[in-house]
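Notes from the 1:1 (GR / supervisor)

We went over the backlog. Supervisor wanted to see one worked example end to end before approving the batch request, so GR pasted a single chain during the call. The sequence is below; no edits were made to it. Supervisor asked that the structure be written out right there so they could see what the output format looks like.
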Amino acid sequence: MKRIRITVVKIATHQDLIDKYENNNVSPCTLKVNDTFIVDSLDSVPEGFCYSAYQSLYPFIMTLMHGGNDIYHGWMKDKNSCVISCNDGFRPVSFLLEVIS
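Structure output shown during the call:
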């Protein structure tokens, strides 16, 4: 299987949604832009990575690890990569997934 690099490329904040819907006792994500993680196996979440975000990325990681490419047919300039966001509606994080070997 191929190895995948996950890089945090953007973090958005929807303050209007936070103010209207979020409880004050929630701890926001601690990831930072340019944080990088390597996936060598589908069996475990990389250390320090958000489990919920990993669940959002998992189908794309699995596809790339098994040699799939050109996800969404021409969507990415590099056919061995994709940009996927986590499912946090208040502070979505966008990740670049890249095949590295």
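Supervisor's comment: Helices lie at 15-21, 51-65.
Batch request approved.
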